[in-house]
Amino acid sequence: MNYQVLARKWRPQTFNDVVGQTHIVKTLTNAIEKGRTAHAYLFSGSRGLGKTSLARILAKGLNCEHGPTASPCNNCSMCIEIISATSVDVVEIDGASNTGVDDIRELKEDVRYIPLKGRYKIYIIDEVHMLSNSAFNALLKTLEEPPPHVIFIFATTEAHKIPQTILSRCQHFNFNRITYQEIMERLGFVAGNEGISLDERSSSIIARSSEGSMRDALILLDQVVSYCGKDVRQNDIETVLGLVGRERLSGLTNAIADKNAKIGLELIKTLVDNSIDIRVFSKEYVEYVRDLLIARVVEAPDHLIERPKENIELIKKEAGLFSLDELQRLFAIFQQAHDEIARSGYPRFVLEIALVKAVKLRPLKPIEDIVQRLSEIERLISAGRTEHSQDVKSKEKATFIHQGDSGDNENNPPIPPLLKGGEGGFSDEDKKDKTEEHEPSGYHPFSWEQLLAAIGKRKPNLRSYLEKGVLLNMIGTDITIGYDEGSSFVAELLNREENIAFIGAVVKDLSGRDRRIKITKLSGNQISKEGFGSAGSEGEKPGRQRSNKDQIIMEALNILGGEVVDTRRPEGGK
Known about the structure:
Layout: H1 6-9, H2 22-33, E1 40-44, H3 51-63, H4 77-83, E2 90-94, H5 101-110, E3 121-126, H6 133-144, E4 150-156, H7 164-167, E5 171-174, H8 180-194, E6 197-198, H9 200-209, H10 214-228, E7 231-232, H11 234-241, H12 246-257, H13 261-273, H14 278-297, H15 309-319, H16 324-343, H17 347-359, H18 367-393, H19 428-438, H20 448-458, H21 460-467, E8 470-475, E9 478-483, H22 488-494, H23 497-511, E10 516-521, H24 524-528, H25 542-560
Parallel strand pairs: 1-4, 1-5, 2-3, 3-4, 6-7, 9-10
Antiparallel strand pairs: 8-9
Helix pairs in contact: 2-3, 3-4, 5-6, 8-9, 10-11, 12-13, 13-17, 14-15, 14-16, 16-17, 18-25, 20-21, 20-23
């Protein structure tokens, strides 16, 4: 049985056959033609790019009976021996198997001898990064000053592991990833010469699956031909390679665009039922979303999307179903899902959760609108601070209205103003008289703001809850705070025994006496009343103040799409 796999049969044999490495080919052919060949080369790059093949072609060009030449004949005895790896003057060494210093010492002995048939003795060391440090050290002197008839060609997939002392003694060539289009063209050339029917869509799938490796592409083609014969179709390739297919990728995309989680979940179930690897699907879908994003931002993306032309047209249409922001968010969701799927024991569930997240995405507001509306919030806050400052200045006129009392009869006389040491409203003598009239010895006057500040220093959350209410009464032995129906949960929270006890303790610290803290619900009329100030006064008006705060908060929620979990002020804030 003399069958030779396509990757070996169609291995490049001349410089012109090398795909995707034009810059390296030009440098080497010029060096041969001008007699400027270096004594050491390092070829680096990922697998299947032609490193070892190009090393052999260089060896043939230097030792061809018609050379040195940039066009080796491939017919003379030297070329044939190099092609068949039987030449005594061109030695190929596997760096992974000959890693020790003894192997290099043996090589150092051999380099002293002149070539038997060719002009040069050429050593090709593959995966040279696998040599040990001692082996590299043993090679240094020979590599720096080799005999004139010796040339070293090193090949590696991990150039970063090569010591700098070795790199500095070599001409280094980094092999490029072979482009999608170059692989497509080469596959078409090979298929034509092999009598294989390979349409563009099938060739495209193989080219994308090879990930820039020409060798991998030919191996995949060989595998598919072994399955379905020389008449290759897209479905055959997807079956053999375990790929997903554009229809499924497109189906999931449309399910997300339609906000239809049911269709998307059914599609994922179909993948599992058909034994399609969820890891493979998630990888392909991340690539698909990337293509959608490219199609959304680039007017003519054909050279950037590695797919058949008819697929690119469909991708353009599907990209139009989403905004650029939505596609960026989709990419982030499925990229994260792919990373989690790689290490999860439940890959299907991870993909399903990612789908639900994608379906439930809400559209983002334009940043310009957000900036404009945030500016409006800033204006409202500034206005609120100005009003608050004016209110503070007028506190000297403030009075407290007892719940249900109007102060218009003998049984319910007007409540005296809250006494604030050192502030206006009453003369010092008046304050003294009223303190003696209404409060026992040892009483220290304080204000609502003082109480809030004292509580805020120790329990900021509790202060924010107190501020949601309206102060109704702060005289005698009672402090009464009212809450409307919309804040009933706050009232219940404050009515807890530990909170009432804490507020009472703070009040005692401020006033020098015990007071009873009462939490009550407000009726409609009471909600509309101004909690501070008498008619014509410019004192604080909690009802209005709360309305202003609520407006600011609701506007922020509207912009940012959030919900209130808790409200807090900075320590000592107003």
